[in-house]
Amino acid sequence: MDQPNDEESAAEPPSLDSNTSWHIDDLLFAPFLFIITVYICNLARDILLQANVMRLDQVQKLATAEIIGTFETTVIMFEINLIVYPLWGVIPYTLLVFIALHWQKLRPDEFQYDANPLTIIMKHVEGIGTAGNSYYQRFEFVMIMIWAETVGAFLSYYYLVNLIWANAHMWGFWDTNNNFHYHLFTTAQEWQASISGDPTFAAFVEGFFSFAQYVWPLLVIRTGFDGDLTLILINSGKAIFAGCGAQYSGGYFNPIIAFALEYKTRGHSLFTKTVVYWIAPIIGTIGGIVTRKWLF
Fold first, then answer.
1. CA–CA separation, 29 vs 66, rounded Å?
2. Under a CB-based contact definition with an 8 Å cutoff, are residues 281 and 287 in contact?
3. Where does the chain cross the membrane (predicted)?
């Protein structure tokens, strides 16, 4: 894999100056963005899934739920990765990742989604259905769901960058000089990849924690915990994994979300980013599936 060069070095998140008003103003804007996004997604679920105004069949409803859920998750994770992590550090980042993961699992069954192709691959290999169905055992359904996730993730990129961040200075919270969201929009073509240091180690981090996030839930369950406590422990572990990996690769362990954000970044080739964010996590997931079958 390539190494960062002097012109396009694999840098940290966008550089910040000492302007502490960024911290305050952007702290106010982040939850405002979350509320807007969640409202839009819930409205779409009510119209397209609950009311079913388009008369979707079950597969179409599952794919639609995946598009909406991936859109919602990716918007939140973009905000966490690009705003929370560089401005406030790894502890708030880890806490918000936990909240995002937990929020995802509190949905009613008909609104459930994965927002991660690794989970879909795991369900396919292990023959796990959702809401009592066996769709995930069909390869063509798996491809439909991964495509739906891709659509949701890339829609979220353009929603954030070209609609929200591009017009953040118009929301009345601040002027453009103190607006880190607007700063990200104006420097979007200069973003540096989240891969810091050796890309091989970044690939190891993505692969190892992709492995861990599928073994950890069974370890928690085997300890005898159940109910809400089990879900809290599982999501806490996954959030800690993300916090540990953030400084090396962005801590995604999710090819769709990672690629939607990273595919246009500078500093590393598309091949390197494919290895780090697709190949390594898939290998780690396969290892996790094998371990689950072997140990449990």
1. 26
2. no
3. 27-45, 82-103, 141-160, 275-295
Please say whether the beta carbons of 14 and 191 come within 8 A: yes
Q: How far apart are CA 260 and CA 150, in angstroms?
A: 8
**Domain boundary assignment for the chain:** 21-295
On whether the 21-295 domain is CATH 3.30.2010.10, my answer is no
- 211: its two tokens: 């492995």
* Gap between the Cα atoms of 295 and 64, Å rounded: 35
How many Å apart are CA 196 and CA 294, to the nearest integer? Answer: 34
**Cβ atoms of 199 and 272 closer than 8 Å:** yes
Taking the model in full, what pTM does it have?
0.82
Who wins on pLDDT, 91 or 188? 91
DSSP string across 197-227: S-HHHHHHHHHHHHHHHHHHHHHHHHTT--T
Q: What is the pLDDT of residues 218-270, one digit of tens each?
A: 888 888 777 778 888 989 999 999 999 988 998 899 999 898 888 878 888 88
Please state, in angstroms and rounded to a whole number, the distance separating the CA atoms of residues 71 and 156: 5
Distances (CA, A) of 51 to 47, 54, 184: 5, 9, 38
Q: How far apart are CA 286 and CA 214, in angstroms?
A: 10
Alpha helices in the chain (DSSP H): 21-45, 58-79, 85-88, 90-105, 117-126, 139-158, 180-186, 199-222, 228-249, 255-262, 270-274, 280-295
> CB–CB of 225/235 below 8 Å?
no
pLDDT digits (tens, 9 = 90+) for 261-275: 888 788 888 899 999
Using CA atoms, how far apart are residues 279 and 268, in angstroms rounded to an integer? Answer: 16
